[in-house]
Structure formats: C-alpha cells, structure tokens
Design a protein that fits this description.
Helices cover 41% and strands 18% of the residues. The protein is of the alpha/beta class. It has an 8-stranded mixed beta sheet with strand order 3-4-2-5-1-6-7-8, sandwiched between helices. It binds adenosine-5'-triphosphate and magnesium ion (MG).
Length: 254
C-alpha cells in the first residue's frame, strides 16, 4: 500500500506546490513509484510538472465527481519521472457540486484506492484553504506534510490547522497524523525566522524536519521550464534541500 501524504497549509504561498513537485521528483529519482495529485484549481503543480492545464480536458475534477477513473486521467510527468493527476479551473466549481453528492468527503480516497497498487507514494498538493477539497485530501491521506514560512503569523495559522486535523481525526479519518513541519523559504540572516524556527522546535520537537529549505531563486524559476528544480538544476541549494528532505522521509524521520 502506498504512503499517502497531503501537503497542506491554508495559508497561501508558503511553498506547498514547490514542495509537492520537488518531493515527487526526488522520490522518483530515489526509485519510488510516485503519483502526484493536483487538488488546487490554480493548477500550479500541473504546470510545474510540465503539463499544460489549459489543454487538459480530464482532471481530478472528473474523478471527484465520478465522471472518469483516475487511471484514465493520470498523465506521465516525463521530466519529473512521476505520474500526475492534473487540475485546472474546472475544479473551482467542484466544491459546490460535491456538497450534494454522497460520501462528499471520501471521494478522492475512493478514487485513489482503485490504483493504490501502482505506487509507493501518493502526494496531494492542496489549495490554500481548509475547504471540502482539503478535507478530501485529509480523508485520503495517512499523513500531513506542512510547509511553512518562519514568520510572525505562522504559528497562529498552524494552531488552526492542527485543530482541523484533530477534528478530522475524530470525525472522518482516525489514523491521520502529522508527518512533519517543513520550514520553507528560510532566510538565515533574518532574526525573526530563527526565533520562530526555535519556537517550532520547542512545540513540535521531532515533528519538525531537520532539513531547512532556503530561499532560492532556482526553485522559483523551475516552474517556468515545466520541470521540478531537482531535475532542472540539481546542484542548486533549493534542489539539494529537497533531496535531503526526501532522504529524511525515506528514513522515516520524522
Ligand atoms: N524556497 C523557495 N525559495 C524561493 N522561492 C520559492 C521557494 N519556495 C517557493 N517559492 C516561490 O514562492 C511562490 C509560492 O510558492 P508555492 O507556489 O510553492 O506556494 P503554495 O503554498 O503552493 O502557494 P498557494 O497557496 O498559492 O498554492 C512561488 O512563486 C514559488 O516559486
Ligand atoms: Mg500551491
């Protein structure tokens, strides 16, 4: 059975998609069979994987609504070496349509179960909200990976997220746990970043990944080439951080 990881933070622009795409590619480079599910109507993970969201007709939306099987929706992200379930703006309407359907929180899980045998890892890139889409990711996942920036409001947002995970655990998915907190866009010259980082370690202990992802322009440039940075510029500091994170995850740490 694959390890299913949801990459979640309701705060926007914290590095969820960058993490999902680079972790998928680095896991593939390490010989793992990986499926990346883009669950965000922005379709950033789709574009960042080199698949054009504008010309893609079947997406995760069709799987959630039961219109197509994931097996016929997934595409090969050639450069990254993983499979991708794409998303585009079609998904923006899904929330409203899902509400009326049976098992509205469990639809992604049910769809993924039918191709579980094909993968070692399934990663889900979530939108910046705690919406029904994100709840579908929580229901499908065993673990939540939380990318975050070490800034003043980060801890406040984190307590909302941890509260939501607790509620999901008691109502929808009792085995859901936090895989780890990942510090992203880290700037070592910033004093506040160090303070927040220390507070995180005090509160969450070994749930904080040891790898720090630095602010690195190569990570931001890679999507415009339709390739993960770990493929496009493997020597960059940003790519190396994601390779180190992948090693931590494969060692089961945390
Ligand atoms: N470590 C980094 N160094 C420099 N730029 C980064 C880094 N990580 C992400 N970025 C850039 O910051 C922006 C936001 O990152 P990303 O899209 O991964 O965040 P997100 O949490 O998925 O955003 P959203 O909430 O909108 O989905 C992007 O332009 C991305 O290229
Ligand atoms: Mg994103």
């Amino acid at each position: 059975m694959p390890r299913v990881l949801a990459v979640v933070n309701q705060k926007g622009g914290v590095g969820k998609t960058t993490t999902a795409v680079n972790l998928s590619a680095a896991l593939a480079q390490a010989g793992q069979r990986v499926l990346l599910v883009d669950l965000d109507p922005q379709g950033n993970a789709t574009m960042g994987s080199g698949i054009d969201k504008r010309t893609t007709t079947r997406t995760v939306y069709h799987a959630l609504l039961g219109l197509s099987e994931l097996a016929s929706i997934r595409q090969r992200a050639e450069k990254g070496g993983y499979d991708l379930v794409p998303a585009n703006r079609d998904l923006a309407g899904a929330e409203v349509e899902l509400v009326a359907l049976p098992n509205r929180e469990g639809r992604l899980r049910a769809a993924l179960e039918r191709l579980a045998g094909d993968y070692d890892f399934i990663l889900i890139d979530c939108p910046p909200s705690l919406s029904l889409l994100t709840v579908n990711a929580f229901a499908a996942a065993e673990q939540v990976l939380i990318p975050m920036q070490c800034e003043y409001y980060a801890l406040e947002g984190l307590s909302d997220l941890v509260g939501t995970i607790k509620r999901v655990r008691s109502n929808i998915n009792p085995r859901l746990e936090i895989a780890g907190l990942l510090r992203t866009m880290f700037d070592p010259r910033n004093t506040l970043a160090h303070q927040v980082s220390q507070q995180l370690e005090q509160h969450f202990g070994d749930k904080v990944y040891r790898t720090l992802v630095p602010r690195n322009v190569r990570l931001a440039e890679a999507p415009s080439y339709g390739a993960p940075a770990v493929v496009w510029d493997k020597a960059s500091k940003g790519a190396q951080a994601y390779v180190a994170l992948t090693e931590e995850i494969l060692k089961g740490n945390p």
